[in-house]
Design goal:
mainly alpha; 11 helices; 78% helix
């Protein structure tokens, strides 16, 4: 649900601080990396990970950097609801398809049903907006970037799940975000007046980096240790649901009957997972 607020914050930053999507992604990652490193230190956990997981940290950092570079520009092109739904609808499909091969997980019948309901629900949310005034090229470009973000996120989840068998969640998240921050830093070359953008948007950036990123990913990584990757992938469909509610309530994006039916199917899928896991 915290991730679902990211698109709304991006819209506010673009409007009030003329913030570049790349700057928002970079600031978010650096703030999260610093806070996660501090949290791991305060918790007394070593930042070392298992030797076999070092390359996975680099791969996860690359996936996270790619997600930021694709997601926030996509929001400015195609809108909050469409991007959140496309990115997070594609991710569970990739996770479900690859988890049996990469992690040896078995997809149970309830998970398959929940995945199907979730995909149908998100598809309804995609086609739900009543009006679409953006130029087709912008919309298509934003949708393609959202698909790239979804793929990057899915690969992050699969790699993280494999790493958590040997490495502690908090140090793993801290190192991953540090790698992502270092990989994204060269993007400053293409950002105009980054200091003035940071000065205008710093409260929102602090929320985005501290709460919606560091806090959310810390909780997610800890939770991922205890549930299958496929279940975690379906559960994160709460992100597009949250983004949809905020887009409708705060920014005037409209949903028809199909959109509300899609939201109901998403909640049903999540309820099915919770009941079956108990």
């Amino acid at each position: 649900m915290l991730w679902g607020t990211s698109g709304s914050v991006m819209v506010v930053l673009a409007d009030r601080a003329a913030a570049s999507p790349l700057l928002v992604g970079l600031a978010r990652i650096w703030i999260a990396a610093i806070l996660l490193l501090v949290a791991a230190s305060v918790a007394g956990e070593s930042l070392a990970v298992a030797p076999g997981d070092r390359w996975r940290c680099v791969a996860m950092g690359a996936c996270m950097a790619g997600y930021q570079a694709a997601y926030f520009p996509a929001v400015t092109l195609a809108g909050i609801v469409i991007v959140a739904v496309v990115a997070l609808c594609s991710a569970p499909l990739v996770i479900a398809a690859l988890a049996p091969w990469l992690l040896g997980e078995r997809l149970t019948t309830p998970v398959r049903v929940a995945l199907g309901l979730g995909v149908i629900g998100t598809a309804l949310l995609v086609i739900a907006p009543a009006d679409r005034s953006d130029p087709p090229a912008r919309f298509v470009g934003g949708t393609l970037l959202a698909l790239v973000a979804g793929l990057a996120y899915a690969l992050y989840v699969l790699t993280a799940k494999a790493s958590l068998a040997r490495s502690a969640p908090l140090p793993l998240a801290a190192l991953t975000f540090t790698v992502a921050a270092l990989l994204l830093t060269p993007a400053l070359v293409w950002i105009r007046a980054p200091i003035s953008q940071l000065a205008l948007g710093w409260p929102w950036l602090l929320y985005l980096g501290g709460v919606a990123t560091a806090g959310a990913y810390a909780m997610y990584t800890i939770g991922l240790r205890h549930v299958p990757a496929s279940v975690a992938g379906v559960t994160t469909l709460l992100e597009p649901l949250t983004a949809t509610i905020l887009g409708v309530a705060l920014f005037g994006e409209r949903l028809g009957a199909g959109g509300w039916l899609g939201a109901l199917l998403l909640l049903t899928a999540l309820g099915l997972l919770i009941v079956c896991r108990r």
